[in-house]
Design a protein that fits this description.
By secondary structure, the protein is mainly alpha-helical. The protein contains nine helices and six strands, in the order αββααααββαααββα. Helix 3 (about 60-70) packs across helix 4 and helix 4 (about 75-80) packs across helix 5.
Length: about 190
């Protein structure tokens, strides 16, 4: 009895946290139908951008707007997407500016556009160049070495070490072995793409 009446709010909360469409309710001749769609709210964000945004220490509404508008958004976009008032939208956007997630707009006022911070855009670009190449590589290979990585991306040994460490920390690759016997297998995010 303790959880009675909690089902519908829990459905809404779970769908929101999973960044999925809101449930649809219908009533027909004494029957209630609930439709839960396993479909993201937006489709414009790349898998790499989704991975970057999902790791940011921000709330669900803030993640949602970054995924729905990966190149920038206005206060009005934020309000429409998250069903909040102007003041709440402004407060949440300013939190992201203060954290360095967003750049402040060049000019304030109506129509001001907030864009992702250069570091996030750089990270997105870097991943968007590497992930498709690595996915293609792993269709014909079961492991990746430092030498393979250097040949794929035409980088130095030290750049390859740095890149491979980053890709491992972000879960795209899984390190096996050590020192000269080390190699990498594709991680879950790389397989999912």
């Amino acid at each position: 009895m303790r959880d009675e009446g909690e089902g519908v709010p829990r459905i809404f909360e779970e769908m929101q946290e999973s960044l999925l469409r809101q449930p649809e309710f219908g009533i027909e001749a004494a029957q209630v139908a609930v439709v839960l769609r396993n479909q993201p709210i937006f489709s414009g964000a790349s898998a790499e951008w989704h991975g970057i945004v999902s790791q940011l220490p921000i709330n669900v509404a803030q993640k949602r707007v970054l995924l729905a508008h990966p190149d920038g958004f206005s206060n009005e976009d934020y309000r429409t997407l998250n069903a909040v008032d102007r003041d709440d939208a402004y407060k949440q956007i300013q939190e992201m500016v203060a954290m360095g997630v967003l750049q402040p707009p060049p000019s304030a006022g109506r129509g001001a556009v907030y864009r992702p911070a250069p570091g996030l855009l750089q990270s997105r670009g870097w991943l968007e160049k590497r992930i498709p190449v690595l996915q293609t590589f792993f269709t014909t290979h079961d492991r990746l070495t430092n030498t393979d990585y250097r040949e794929l991306f035409n980088v130095t040994r030290f750049a390859a070490i740095r890149d491979l460490r980053r890709l491992t920390e972000e879960g795209f690759l899984v390190l096996e072995g050590e020192r000269r016997g080390a190699f990498y297998r594709s991680g879950p995010p790389l397989k999912a793409g």
